[in-house]
Each structure stands twice: as C-alpha cells, then as structure tokens.
Amino acid sequence: MRLKSDRELKTNSNKLKFELLVPANNKDIAKKAILTGADAIYIGYSKYGARIQAGNSLEDIIELIEFAHSYRVKVYITLNTILKDEELKKIEKLINRLYRIKADGIIIQDMGILELDIPPIPIIASTQCNNTTVEKIKFLETTGFKRVILPREITLKEIREIRQNTTIELECFIHGALCVSYSGQCYLSHVIGSRSANRGECAQPCRKQYSLKDSDGKFIIRNKYILSLKDLNLSNYIDELIKAGITSFKIEGRLKNEAYVINTTAYYRQLLDNILDSNNLKRSSQGISYFDFEPNPYKTFNRGFTEFNINNNKKDLATVNYSKSIGEFIGIVQSVKKNYFTLNTDILNNGDGICFFDENKILTGTYVNKTEGNTVYPAEIKGIKPNLKIYRNYNKEFDNQLQNCEIKRKIPLTLKAKELNTGYMFLLIDEEKNCACHIISKNYEKAINKEKAINTLKIQLAKSGTSEFEIEKTDINIQNIPFIKVSKINEIRRILIEKIRKIRRKNYKYETRENNFKIAQYPENILDYKTNIFNEKAKNFYEKRGAKVKEYALESQKTFNNRTIMISKYCIKNQLGLCHKQMPIKKYTEPFRLIDEFNKEYLVEFNCKDCVMSIKTLP
C-alpha cells in the first residue's frame, strides 16, 4: 500500500481506518480517554510491561474491555519486557486468559513468547524490538505480527520506504516523552542501578545531570541535563504521516495523570478528525466525543516540544538546563518589588505554578499566591528579576476545568417505527446495521390530536439519557397514530437500548491471526546482547531462523566493561554546537567522556556518517 497523494488517500478510503492510540495508567484514566475520543487504548497488566509502575489487575482489564468495545475501541495489553525462563509458563497462561476476555492484541518484545502455546491473539511488535530497518520489519510481517511500533527516531523518508516494501500495520509515536536512546538499546539504568528498561524498571537516568569532558581532561559542560530530550509533538505532521503510511497514531504517557491524558487526547482527536474528514477517511472506532474545554498541550505536563528526527532535524533537542515540565511561556517581568513583580501580561491566576531560569540557568519554580491584573505576588520572590521570562508549569484554572469538565461520547442510532397488522414495531439501527426490534400490540386508543401524539413519540423516543447512544434520526411511519402514555414510550426506548447494547456486544468483530508463526530467515546472522535474548525459548526462536546467538541479554551478565549501553540519534556535539559541520576547527579532543552523579565515567563515541551517538562503559 502506497499513499503518495490526496487522490490516493481518497481512493483507499474504504480500506483504511485510522486509530488514535492513547496510554492509560489505570482503567479510570482509560475510560476518560475513551470518552474523550481514543480509538484504542494501551494499558499494562500487573507484570511484564515496560512501565512496571503502570500495572493493572485482570479484573480491571476485563471491565475496561467491555466498556471500550461498546465504542469499538480496541484495548492492547503491554507485555513488552524480556522474560526469564521461569516466567514463560506464567505469561503463557496470562495470554490465554487475555484472549478469552477478548483483549485486542498484545504488545511484545520477547520472541520467546512466540515459542509458547498461545492462542491466535494479534501480536504487535513493541518499539523495544528495535524496528529500525525494512528488513527487520519484513521479517516481523512474514513471521505473523499484526503491527510494528516504529522507533521514535523514524523519519518520514524511512516510513515511506517501509510502507513501499511491506503491508504490515504501522504505528508511530506522535506525542509525549522521548527516550534519548533507541528503545530496547538502552542499558544505562541497568548498569547504573540494576534497574533494567527491558524489564520495565527504567529509573530514567537520562533525566539526571551529567558532565562532559574531552580526552585531555578539559570540561566541556558541568552538571547539566545533557541527555534529557524535549517532548515529542508531531501535530504538524499528521497529514504527512497518513500519506507516508501510518494508520495508528500513538501518544506516550502510561505514567501520566488524567489531566494530561484527557487534554492530549482531545487535542489530537480534533486535529485528526479534521484531517480525516477533509480526506473522506475513516477512524477505527465509533461515537462522537463532546467536551467543554479547549485542549492545549502546553497547559499540561511538557518539557517543551520538538519534532525530533521526523525531518532530520538535529537542532535544540535537549533540555540542557532542566528535565522537568516547563509548561507554557507566559510573559516577561517588567519590574520587581519586595514581595511582588509585574508582567507584560495579566493571564496568571491565584494558585498557578510558575518557573523561570535563574542567573545560573537553573530552572526554578514557585507558586502564585495572588494576582491583581499584571501584578503577581509569588510565594517566593527570590531570583525574579526584570526582563526574566516566566513560564507556567501548573495552570490551576485549566486543571480545575479538566477535573470538572463534562465529557461524553455518543454512538449515533436511527430509530424507526412502523405500523403492522397486529401492532407497532420499533427499531433501533446503528452504523454497522445492527438492529434491535420491539413490537407492541395495537391495544391503544387512536390519538385525538395526531400531530401532538407523533411529536410526543419523536421527542420521547429520541431521548437517550446517560447511555452511550444518541438517537440522531427518527422515522415514524404510522398512519393511525395511537395514544401511548409517556411512561410506556420511555419503556419502549429503554428496551430497545438494552437490546441494541447486547446485540452490539455479541457482534463485536474480534480479530485473530494465524495460530502458527512462520519460519523466515532472520536478517542478522550473529546476535549479541543487544538482541535482548533472556531465555532459552527466545534463543530457539532465532536459531530456527538461521541466526547464531553469541550471547544473552546484558541483564543476564555480571560485568559490563567495554559495552555499548546506549545508542542514540541525538548528538551531544550537535546540541552543544561542537559538530564539525558547525565548527570546522576542533575546540576539544575526542573521545569525550560522560560523568554521572556518582563520578562514574563513560565513553562517548560519534558515528558522524550515520549521525549516531553511542555511550560505552570503559574497558
């Protein structure tokens, strides 16, 4: 499938359905995300997910699936850690249970899972699988994967190439936190503190301070967040991503709070709908979402935004002076007094959280106690000076608005009423042509006021209350209008709604795959620790496909000397203006060394040909 133009988009519109994929820490956040407009949810079980802090019970997942499927929203379960041998039987049982409760797919990294006796549940290749080449993705497609999650570092050009050579579903990150390393290729957390990202325990060492020095011992930068990237925001590229071949648009954030998820989901729901509607394209779920706030991604957690590598941009990717949320730029300080300051704007409110960079370029924050127009009384005045830029990283008014907002999602239905020889037939029909029917007898008096009776029928039958449905159209085809009490009309409607709900639940189209995974030649011959093989089943998987396993995952080894522990498309030299393309005269002598908070040193290497940076442990 190749989408190169608007014309081809419209030509393929009957085949394609596009999915806004939203994260959820728990079932409650997931339900809010669904009401706000998510087409799919990814959520973790209590074990085996790459965010071990975001786990849920099977009972909660069952409840969520039933809720989601009523809107035709899919629920994917994250099982994307590498697994110990003794964990394989447990995960085999879990996958069988997930299949029975109709989870729509599992996201995995460990290929040992494919060697187990598992049901035909759809399998999605996690970004932890390091899906960076056409050859790797073709292999996964041939093997039997439903979808691959592309790396955050992907470019539009690379997506187009993958699409031209494969037909597998392509999922792409469009918003949220960025890992500095290729996913699955970062071992920094494990090496520093025995908390493996591949085991769901990443301690986020990339958000810590580091120093950098050259091989002569000269410090290039001290105690800065030089591995902490800004957050991803590809809202300007959604149409291009559709044309390139993406059908699932993924928001990052299984550890984020409800406000973040609601706000971000609403923002991309509006954006995606506008693009789909203008191209006559379809979304993958049903129902229209209504919310009474104006979404703005700058008003909830963000470290500032970047489009990262989507168009080979290499500039200003990191948040060198901070690693936490910076929020939205508000204004510039005009004057400062003993306990207040004035701004060139008056949009701050009591209770807001503000931040700014002090004279040492360190991000500092405080709360707003009171405002009077553009005069602000902060909890702490220290560090605030004229001409200082002020950011708002907590918007109390917006947060209150999100907490108290009205969000609902309605599935459109058509109601029809017909007169039969023996009674009256009422029908509810959805967009899938599911139909609920209820017939009442003709034991009703003829209405004296025909017009009033038919209006009462239309008004009462169109009410859907707090249900997930909205009766958009009513077609009353009755010649001899009966007089039916309002209470009886309401009863007819309730019966119809309950019937259509049951019919829709029964007729949910659950996807399956071929149960047997095919044998195809793996695109690499020799596999080292970076393939993340952690159990015997995974080893068997690769060896059946022609690869030789040289060693197991780094997590199984006791020493880490002279090992690459991070591979990144982000370049420290570029960030600091030291790239030879920017500075022909070398100011510092390579190789560089990275120094963490424990004074432990790591070697930094640069592959300028491919624009890739690696961090290694010392020999």
How would you characterize the overall build of this protein?
This protein is of the alpha/beta class. It has 4 domains: 18-178 and 230-286, TIM Barrel (Alpha-Beta Barrel), CATH 3.20.20; 182-228 and 521-619, no CATH class; 312-394, Elongation Factor Tu (Ef-tu), domain 3 (Beta Barrel), CATH 2.40.30; 412-430 and 435-506, no CATH class. Helix content is 24%, strand content 26%. The chain is built from 14 helices and 30 strands. An 8-stranded parallel beta barrel has the order 1-2-3-4-5-6-7-11, surrounded by 5 helices. Helix 2 (27-36) runs parallel beside helix 3 (58-69), helix 2 (27-36) packs parallel to helix 9 and helix 6 (156-165) runs parallel beside helix 8 (238-244).
CATH topology of the largest domain: TIM Barrel
**Helix count, per DSSP?**
14
Percent of residues in helices: 10-25%
CATH class of the largest domain: Alpha Beta
| Count of extended strands | 30
| Unreliable spans | 1-8
Helix-strand makeup class: alpha/beta
Query: Radius of gyration, rounded?
Result: 28 Å
Instruction: Measure the end-to-end span.
Output: 47 Å
Mean of pLDDT: 94
Largest sheet: 8 strands, parallel, barrel
CATH architectural arrangement of the largest domain:
Alpha-Beta Barrel
As laid out across the biggest beta sheet, the strand order is 1-2-3-4-5-6-7-11
The CATH homologous superfamily of the largest domain is called Phosphoenolpyruvate-binding domains
Large-scale geometry: globular
Please state roughly what percent of the residues sit in beta strands, choosing from under 5%, 5-15%, 15-25%, 25-35%, 35-45% or over 45%. 25-35%
Indicate how many domains the architecture comprises: 4
